[in-house]
Write a structure and sequence with these properties.
Layout lengths: L2 H24 L14 E8 L3 E9 L4 E13 L6 E5 L4 E5 L8 H14 L4 H17 L9 H10 L12 H23 L1
Helix pairs in contact: 1-2
Length: 195
């Protein structure tokens, strides 16, 4: 594999990890830990400036990153500063890369993240099925998550409660009310300034 093919393969891995982080960020905080059920932890940090957006993706074990990639995109706002007029996407710069078995977990971790988002999180009646799917993947390398209809998802959300992720030490309700109280003064100040 020449350098260009290797760079394209790494860029594809980072794009999948970025997609995984998108799904993960859309989940409630109490559900995000389930994305790492296979042992691949994906973290993304975004720094927004007036004329740029910098993304940093890291993935690896719980305490060791196997890949660290960054990308800075140039942006230009319209006259009202609310809508992007131009957006230039740059290439990922790979700062760190260690080849290994973790690469086999990238696509499956992405599938878990998108599945959790589609079904609205992991609920009590799904935990056994989810655990079996993870165990089967670890044995065979094939991930088979159950597909559910919209009616089943809604019924599940009404009848049972969401399970907190294995790593969260708080409940979603407690965190939500804490965040609401923390940002309320900021929202009020912005409202008064923009009125």
């Amino acid at each position: 594999m020449d350098n260009k093919q290797k760079r394209n393969a790494l860029s594809r891995i980072v794009d999948i990890l970025d997609d995984t982080a998108d799904w993960k960020d859309q989940l409630p905080p109490s559900q995000r830990g389930w994305v790492s059920s296979l042992g691949l932890y994906v973290q993304r940090r975004i720094v927004r400036g007036r004329r740029f957006v910098t993304r940093r993706i890291q993935a690896g074990s719980k305490f060791h990153a196997y890949i660290d990639a960054r990308r800075t995109d140039d942006i230009q706002y319209g006259d009202d500063f609310a809508v992007f007029r131009q957006y230039h996407i740059s290439e990922w710069r790979i700062k760190k890369y260690e080849s290994g078995d973790w690469e086999n977990l990238v696509v499956a971790t992405n599938e878990i993240a998108s599945w959790l988002y589609r079904v609205g999180g992991l609920y009590e009646d799904d935990k056994d099925i989810f655990d079996r799917a993870v165990a089967t993947f670890k044995e065979t390398g094939k991930l088979e998550l159950p597909e559910r209809t919209d009616a089943e998802i809604q019924r599940s959300q009404v009848e049972t409660r969401q399970l907190d992720s294995p790593e969260s030490g708080y409940s979603a309700g407690c965190l939500g009310s804490t965040l609401a109280l923390a940002i309320l003064p900021v929202v009020i100040a912005l409202y008064l300034l923009l009125r």
